[in-house]
Design a protein that fits this description.
mainly alpha; 60% helix; 2 helices
């Protein structure tokens, strides 16, 4: 696994873990889910599809 891909998987796995309420003992599940998402995203980019927009936090003043 190249460093850039692993970096994105790590960060996405963390996002998924936080969204799920930070459960203990599920790190492998979140890693695998993030890895699948990143592979799908890479494949769609190679096929010319536009990438999925990244999540953006809402501004604090809303």
């Amino acid at each position: 696994m190249d460093d850039e891909f692993e970096y994105h998987v790590r960060h996405r796995a963390y996002e998924l873990w936080v969204q799920a309420g930070r459960p203990d003992g599920k790190h492998q599940d979140f890693w695998e889910a993030a890895e699948r998402e990143m592979k799908v995203q890479q494949k769609s980019q190679l096929n010319g599809a536009s990438p999925k927009p990244e999540a953006v936090d809402a501004p604090d003043d809303i």
